[in-house]
Amino acid sequence: MKTDYVIQAENLTKLFGDFAAVNRISFHVKAGEIFGFLGANGAGKTTAMKMLIGISTPSSGRATVAGFDVYKETEAIKKNIGYMSQKFALYDDLTVKENISFYGGIYGLSKKAVKEKSHKLIEELNLQAVSNSLVGGLPLGWKQKLAFSVALLHDPKIVFLDEPTGGVDPITRRQFWEMIYKAAHKGTTIFVTTHYMDEAEYCDRVSIMVNGKIEALDTPKRLKAHYKTDTMNEVFLKLARG
Amino acid sequence: MEITVANISKSYNTVTALKDISFGVETGELFGLIGPDGAGKTTLFRILTTLLTPDNGVATVSGFDVVTNYKAIRNSVGYMPGRFSLYQDLTVEENLNFFATIFGTTIDANYDLVKDIYVQIEPFKNRRAGKLSGGMKQKLALSCALIHKPKVLFLDEPTTGVDPVSRKEFWDMLKRLQNKGMTILVSTPYMDEAALCDRIALIQDGRILEINTPKAITEHFPKPLYNIRANNMYLLITSLQKYQHTHSVFPFGEYVHYTDKRNTPDKTALSQYLKHLGLTEITIEKTKPTIEDSFMELAKK
């Protein structure tokens, strides 16, 4: 397999009994790319993502993430990726600083590195005034920005974002995307799922899963041209409705 | 007016959830509360469904006061809370039966009203509610909220976390219910759903930013709006943010939405400025504002 791809999947499959939740999907993600991973509820996105981040063993097929094998090198994968989801990101009962040092520790950063990164990150996010406050009391938008930064703490090659912007106001949602662009600009690969179709347009390429299979994969521009529509929302509706 | 809200305020300890909120919903209207998490939408729903009492102000539903006449309201409204709150250990059919019985009716008596929705989950009627997928839970919750034929339906973020296909189906269902004469108050964080309501209230941080028809709200957008595109999105955003005449810059799909302090930008000068910073394939075109543009402009103040 070629190594300039950060993710490579070939016929990746996950069966639950005789139900194929993920059915022979194949795709590549390039370094520094913003890759949108779309699909209706139940299409198999979460199952596919779990295999890629090394917490679920595929039934068949091959895949590597950051150069590591999803069957045999799951621990190495976990060390080389960042992960953030809307549901689980930070500990509400820890302060901003404690969350940062906790994750820094988990990812094996030295105390000195944690201290430096923590300082820089709090300054960048403008969280000085609340650095010793419990995360649980922060507005959702702040939490999400912090969670994203924490997911990047160990300079992963790739970061997986599972519906990162659900529920936040439109301004914060855009500030969040500016952070994504910034990270991608620096070379971090972004793998993101979302239900906001305008966010699909922010991606370099998007894949759309329908019933366990990838039914479309291209740049938003080419997908719109191919399906003869003006928006990704219409592309999605056309595909997911079958 | 089927719902009236006058100067309602509510605080939790030091946190103000609602600040002097007033609006009315006409009988048969589909009215949307549009705003992000923490805007106060759920608090307002709880007050109107008599589960919370306001600190100040007066509200009525179908002519009944939410504080003094709460029992009458509970009998005549349907409420679908944001969090799934049916009995996970009861089957689909048992849940629906339970809600029908509580309100002194039967599934058969009002089957007509829930039929459209319920037929989609009927094949799974013996499955426990806790084992349903998200989309099916949502349909069951709506069926349970409808089974006693309420005059007013309260739906708190029924489509949050739901994919665009299911969201569209859900809104089609709401339109059908509205056509049957029901008054519907629905909240959503998705700005694109606002266009499907008769009128909307944009809400943030416990305050109403504006109330009007979706069309009127976008028509009130104060400045000409431009779509700008270039070869590098990140560079384009950061460059525009530094531009001296910029009023607002927001990524919008494949474009950046831009407004100028002078209202009408000097397109040539702006294009030159962007080229100078290394951008290519620059296009600048006028575009129409969406509800989301209006929301952001109002929220900025």
TrEMBL record, chain B:
InterPro entries, per database record? AAA+_ATPase (IPR003593), ABC_transporter-like_ATP-bd (IPR003439), ABC_transporter-like_CS (IPR017871), ABC_transporter_ATP-binding (IPR050763), P-loop_NTPase (IPR027417)
ABC transporter domain span: 3-230
**What GO molecular functions are on record for this protein?**
ATP binding; ATP hydrolysis activity
Q: Which UniProt keywords apply?
A: ATP-binding, Nodulation, Nucleotide-binding, Transport
Sorted alphabetically, which SUPFAM superfamilies does this protein's record hold?
Answer: P-loop containing nucleoside triphosphate hydrolases (SSF52540)
Q: Does the keyword Nucleotide-binding apply?
A: yes
Gene3D superfamilies reported in the protein's UniProt record: P-loop containing nucleotide triphosphate hydrolases
The UniProt similarity line reads:
Belongs to the ABC transporter superfamily.
Name of protein: ATPase
